[in-house]
TrEMBL record:
Keyword Phosphoprotein belongs to the record: no
Protein name: Uncharacterized protein
Primary site of residence: membrane
Membrane topology: Multi-pass membrane protein
Keyword Transport: yes
Transmembrane segments: 241-261, 281-311, 332-351, 383-404, 416-433, 453-472
Gene Ontology BP, a term: copper ion import
Subcellular location(s) per record: Endosome membrane
One Pfam family matching this protein: Ferric_reduct
Coiled coil: none
Recorded superkingdom: Eukaryota
UniProt family annotation: Belongs to the STEAP family.
Keywords: Copper, Endosome, Ion transport, Iron, Iron transport, Membrane, Oxidoreductase, Transmembrane, Transmembrane helix, Transport
Amino acid sequence: MNEMTEIRIDIENSNKINEKIAIIGTGNYGVAIGKRLLHFGYEVIYGSRNPNKEYLKKCFQDLNNTYQMDVTSIYDAWNRADNLVILAISVDNYENFVSEIMSSLNEKNSQKKSKIIIEISNLKDSDNFKTLKISNAEKLNSLFKEKISEKNLNYPIHVVKGFNLINAHSISLFLYETNKTNLTNCDLTVPIAGNDRHAKQKVIELCSIIGLKANDIGLLKSSLKLELANKLTFDEWKYPTLISLVYFFVNFVWEFFHNFIFTKKPTTFDEYMKKFSLMSFIIKSSGFTSLYLLAFVYLGHVIACIYQLKYGTKYKKFPKWLDQWLKTRKQFGLWAFMFATIHVILSIMTINPQYSASWFKKTGNYTYGKMTLNGEMNTLTGVFTYLLLILVALSSINSIANSLNWNEWNFVQAKIGLFCLLLGSLHCFSMFYRQFSEMTQIDLVFILTRTKLIAIWLPCLVLILRFIFGYFRPLSKRIENIRNGQKVKIDKV
Ligand SMILES: NC(=O)c1ccc[n+]([C@@H]2O[C@H](COP(=O)([O-])OP(=O)(O)OC[C@H]3O[C@@H](n4cnc5c(N)ncnc54)[C@H](OP(=O)(O)O)[C@@H]3O)[C@@H](O)[C@H]2O)c1
Ligand code: HEM
C-alpha cells in the first residue's frame, strides 16, 4: 500500500509545473480553465469574493490533483500568482476588481512581481457592437494604467486578450472525451492579442503546455475583433440570405402570374388554378434563382474590373456596396448551389410526361415514348451543370480550399464556375429553343416574355463581359497592368 502511494506521488510530481496561476472568479469559465491547468500540472489559486474550498473541491472531484489548488481572496490570489492571472469575471465587475487590487498595492509590494492578465471576456448582449470602438481588454488596460499613474507606481501589468472564442465546455471537454474522432481532432486554437511581446510569449507557452495552439493576431487593439467575432453570428450570411430568399419569392410570384398573363391558354383564373402544380413552380423558380445568383457572383468581379479600368488603379478603394458584394460572393455562390439542389431533386422526381410533356416524344393522344433529343439535351446540360457546381461549392469550404494552391482554387472557382454558368444557360436556352422552333409565326411579345430566355440575359451578359475582359487584348492587358500595381492613365482607358 505504501509502495503504491510512493509511486502515485512520483507520477504527480513528475507532472508538476512549478508555477502558480491565479484565476479570478469561480464561475463556469474559471472552473473549466482551472481543470485544464490542474490537469497539466499547474498550481492554481482562485481569487473569489467568497472563498469556498469545499465547493471547488467538488467541482474537481474527477481530477486527482486537487491538492495543487487553493482558494482565497481576490487580492491574495493576485499576490500569490507568479506571473499569470486569468480574469474570469464579467466585464461589469472590472472597475471593482481594479479598485480592489490597486487599493492594496503600494510602493513596497508593487515591486514584487509583474503581472500578465489574461482577459477572456466577451461582449454583453446589451452592447451595441456596431458602434463599439474599444474592447473590454483595452478598457481593462486603461483602468489599470489610470490607477497606476494616479498612485505614481512603477508596476508593470500587461493585458493579453485570449480564450474568449473557446467556451467553458470545450476547454475542459477533452478530460471526459472518449470518442476517438473527437480526441484526434481536438486541436483548439486560441487567438491572442496584446501589446507586450514577452507577455504574449508567456501566454503562447502556457497554451502549448496545456495542449492548445495560440495564434498571435496582433496588438491589444485587435482584441475588439476577437470580441466581435463572437457577436457577429453568421453576419456575412445575413444579406446574401435575405437577397436570395426575396429573389426566390419574387421569381415564384413571377412564374405564377407570368404563365397566366402571357400564355393565356387557360382563359379563366379558375381553370388556370385547376392545372396549377406547386412542384412545377418551385422547380422553375429555383432553377431561375440559382442561375441568376450564380451570375450575380461573377457580375461582382466584372463591376470591380470596370471600376478599376475607370480609375486606372487598384489602389482606389471600392465603394462600400461593391466591397460588401465582393466579400459575400461565397455566400451567394452557396445559395446558388442550394437552389440548384432543390431544383435538381424536384426535377428528377418529376421528369415524366405528366410534368414535362414537351421533353418526350408523343406516340398517341395520351401516350408518350422516349425523350426527344431536346429533352435529352436539357437533362444532360442540367446534370453536368449540377455536377460541376458541386465541385465549385466544395472548393469554397475552407478546409478544402486550404488544400488547393492558388492556381487550382482559382481554376475551380473562376473557370469551372463560369463554365457552369455557360452550361446552365445552354440548359435554359435549349428549352427556349424548342418553344421558339415550334412557333408558326414570330411573336415578339411571346419571345421576350419567355422565362427561359429572361433566365439567360444576365448570365450571358456576365459571360460576354468576362470574355472581353479576359481575352480582348487592349482591355485584358490594361487590367493586368492595373492588377500588377501600375497606374494606367484615365485618358488611355
Ligand atoms: N462561460 C463561457 O463559456 C465563456 C466563454 C468565453 C468567455 N467567457 C467570459 O468569461 C467570463 C466569466 O464567465 P462565466 O461564464 O464564468 O461567468 P459566471 O459563471 O457568471 O462567473 C463569473 C464569476 O465572477 C465572479 N464575480 C461575480 N461578481 C463579481 C464581482 N462583483 N467582483 C468580482 N468577481 C465577481 C464570481 O466568482 P466568485 O463568486 O468566486 O467571486 C462568478 O462566479 C465572462 O467575462 C465571460 O464573457 C465565458
Ligand atoms: C439534374 C439536373 C437538372 C435537371 C434534371 C433539370 C431539369 C429542369 C426542368 C424539368 C426544368 C423545367 C422545365 C419546364 O417545365 O419548363 C428546368 C428548368 C430550368 N433549369 Fe434545370 N435542371 C437541372 C439542373 C439545373 C441547374 C444546375 C440549373 C442552374 C444552375 C438549372 C437551371 C434551370 C433554369 C434557369 C430553368 C428555367 C426555369 C424557368 O423556366 O423559369 N437547372 N430544369
